[in-house]
Write a structure and sequence with these properties.
Oligomer: single chain
Distance between the termini: 28 Å
Largest sheet: 2 strands, antiparallel
Strand order of the largest sheet: 1-2
Low-confidence stretches: none
Mean pLDDT: 96
Number of strands: 2
Order of helices and strands: HHEEHHH
Structural class: mainly alpha
Length: 135
């Protein structure tokens, strides 16, 4: 009986977290929302619930200060997972490879100056928040 009640509450929590993510404007592919899963199990005389999500949820929860952005303009680095991730993101938004690369570097420069979230990213939020979806 307690296990079923906790499962119901975990389902509600998962749905509320997904709603908050969408309202904050954090929906591109839906992967993070789909990664919100939970499990409820008995551990001796206790019933324990755990919520899981993709690891990058932590960056959406707390943001990333500018000094932690892994990009150094003009460094001449041949490969960067950060830049490659931004190129992939912009490709999913329909940009061709050249446009995606330009957009990635422009975004990296803004991230390096402002951190994440950027001031402009609040335009994608319907509730005025871009971090703290768990809180």
């Amino acid at each position: 009986m307690i296990k079923q009640a906790l499962e119901q509450q975990m389902r509600i929590l998962r749905d509320l977290l997904a709603k908050e993510l969408a309202e904050q404007g954090h929906r591109n592919t839906g992967a993070l929302e789909r990664s919100l899963t939970y499990e409820v199990k008995r551990e001796g005389d206790k019933v324990v619930g755990a919520m899981m999500a993709n690891i990058y949820a932590i960056y959406l929860e707390f943001g990333v200060p500018a000094n932690r952005i892994p990009y150094t303009p003009g460094s001449g680095a041949k490969r960067s997972k950060y830049i490659q991730g931004l190129i992939t993101y912009f490709t999913t938004k329909g940009l061709n490879p050249s446009e995606a690369k330009s957009a990635a570097f422009a975004t990296a420069n803004v991230h390096k100056r402002e951190g994440m979230p950027t001031r402009a990213s609040f335009n994608f939020s319907s509730n005025g928040r871009r971090t703290g979806f768990l809180r």
